[in-house]
Amino acid sequence: MPAPSPHSADLLVIGWGLAGLVAASEAVAAGKRVVIVDQEPRTNLGGQAWWSFGGLFFIDSPEQRRFGIKDSLELARQDWFGNAGFDREDDAWPRRWAEAYLQFAHGEKRTWLRAKGVGFFPVVGWAERGGYTAAGPGNSVPRFHITWGTGPGLVAPFQSAVEAAEAAGRLTILPRHRVTALTTSDGAVTGASGDILEPSGAARGVATSREVVGSFEVTAGATIVASGGIGGNHDLVRQWWPERLGPAPSTMVTGVPAYVDGSMQIVADSAGARLINRDRMWHYVEGIQNWDPVWPDHGIRILPGPSSVWLDATGHRLPVPLFPGFDTLGTLAHLRATGYDHSWFVLSQKIIEKEFTLSGSEQNPDLTGKDLPLLVKSRLGKGAAGPVQAFMDKGADFVVRDDLDELIAGMQALPGGDVLDGDRVRFELEARDREIDNEFTKDAQIAMLRSARSYRGDRLVRTAVPHRILDPSNGPLIAVKLHVLTRKSLGGIETDLQSRALGADGQPIAGLYAAGEASGFGGGGVHGYRALEGTFVGGCLFSGRVAGRAAAAAV
């Protein structure tokens, strides 16, 4: 093995996802020399954020006001803290980060992004609707702003800034450099060392070799860990899985590439950084197997509108308020208590045409490509959007039939379908349909559908007119088998409001910073137990900006 390849810089950034790119661009803007390392080939520049839907949480935005949405910092704070449920001594810094992030989302966040050329889809989405009391979990109003260009559009200005600095000789990008240790001197972190992996021409997201061909060392005045979470590492997800959510699933699909492996959290812990809230995590329950996978066990999340009937594996309808899009972790906890790893959506063709969107930049070519004609056709035209139709035609989890008996038989024919009680499915759907004939109802989901359609955005692109699912004129009938899909770590490296990593004594570790998912999106867990959505890439933006500015000022 050749001698370690040496590098030096003012700042070392570990990880080139959105948080890392933002931090690096801020440091370069402050006149610092930067080295970025990542274990993947350069095709993956932008990390997980490139694959994202690009949803952003704003408070009292122009887009909200145009739709008559009355939002405020006070209402958003009520929702955030009611959702987070902070209840630990370890939540001291996460609480402060939450307050700071709310100020950012209400203040300069949108202006800052607009100045960088980032635009937003005019219709504001309503994610995590809650359905409890005013002080409980969920968003009281729509706050989910979709980036025009989705994830790639959000990554683009920061990638451009980094590449311009690289061309100017002020920044170095080192692909296939995997950090295995943070180096220290007199208690301060002075850089990192690790393995150089063999070159790879793999496409973005495709799993790559871990064959070691050399070693490296980087010396830096400050080091920022921006390496992401654990969602691609099922073993670690199960190891840290919280008892309050029930037993960990035996089978899951994966919502992030394999390189999201949590390895840097272990490295940071070994260097003295304090990991907190590791048992807080965010996994979806509307995952489907990708018919055209990129990474191992590749799953896609359905971003559901509120109309589909949600059944557990046996055919029983989920309780109030566990409707599609209302309470992600509440639904996960309920389904884990059933003893099965899957559940079902049952819906009509009218519902799938109006309400089904798939998460991910690659599943939304109209928004990602900024293609207005395709946008109008896919969102407002007849038939399901192209990517959704592809899953209906080719997806292993979709059953499409003309009548209920055939639908139930198709559901029972899928793996695990033998536990489905067909009579119960029929009972649930027929009972639900009887409630449609009157404008008043005791069915809380139907009442919520009618309420949702009072919001112009839902009526326009997100919520179908309530109708009988079993009426053949609304068909065909569709069932979708749903899996747990791994996604986000809500805990991580504890940081103060300057993104400085804290040690076991609560004091900053000299020279060490953390940002993005590696830091629980700020402080070691800015979301608490639950996220309000649009706050993951937003948390990367905010914590990356804080880390880059603070580290640059310190060296």
From TrEMBL:
NCBIfam families with a match to the protein in the record: PRK12834.1 (NF009472)
Protein name: FAD-dependent oxidoreductase 2 FAD-binding domain-containing protein
Keywords per UniProt: Flavoprotein, Oxidoreductase
Domain of life: Bacteria
Keyword rRNA processing: no
Keyword hit for Flavoprotein: yes
Stretches assigned to the FAD-dependent oxidoreductase 2 FAD-binding domain: 10-537
GO molecular function, one term: oxidoreductase activity, acting on the CH-CH group of donors
